[in-house]
Amino acid sequence: MLEARLREGFVRMRQLMELTRHEMRLRAPFNPLPYSALIAACESFFEHLVQVRQSSLYFQPNMAASDPAAIASLTVPRRDAVAVILMNLYVLACALRADKPVPRYLPSAAIARRRLLDCMAVMEAEQVRRSEVDGKGKGVEDGGRERMGHEEGKGRRWADVYQYAFSGALTDIVENLQEMQRYTKEVCGEVGWESDELVA
């Protein structure tokens, strides 16, 4: 329901942007291009956010069930990645609402994303190593081991598909966020250096 309302909101914003062509300009010429680009970046951000939410539910089911400690070790990188994105969105939203310039430097969502993906890769490698050691230690018969290996391999392939989708969508989210920063700075301006203000 909420997703449908957000999608409808994007459509209505585009309709309003089309109507601005026929409005009178009492102050100065209005350039709709940065606003249109910002709306497109927000819509793309929303679509990739939905994709991240859906893919994150399935790409690590075995780790979540068998190794809670590994999931706990990812809590801090996940928190940092989400916090950086929310911080950027909050700053941009406040700048647009108050019509104030955007700070020149914002927390880097790309670095937080890279740390999260690196930690996920380490946890995945550790899980594979443990599963191989456990399989050898249990001494399963060849037929049973082959059948279990086939089932695990099939589940692993689907987990990899979801993981690649998660990583790709998260990368797209960071790129959309950078676009939103750029277009918001075009709309609201950017905070300058104190030395620039003193010279002026």
UniProtKB/TrEMBL annotation:
<feature type="region of interest" description="Disordered">
    <location>
        <begin position="132"/>
        <end position="152"/>
    </location>
</feature>
<protein>
    <submittedName>
        <fullName>Uncharacterized protein</fullName>
    </submittedName>
</protein>
<keyword id="KW-0812">Transmembrane</keyword>
<keyword id="KW-0472">Membrane</keyword>
<keyword id="KW-1133">Transmembrane helix</keyword>
<dbReference type="GO" id="GO:0016020">
    <property type="term" value="C:membrane"/>
</dbReference>
<dbReference type="InterPro" id="IPR052430">
    <property type="entry name" value="IVT-Associated"/>
</dbReference>
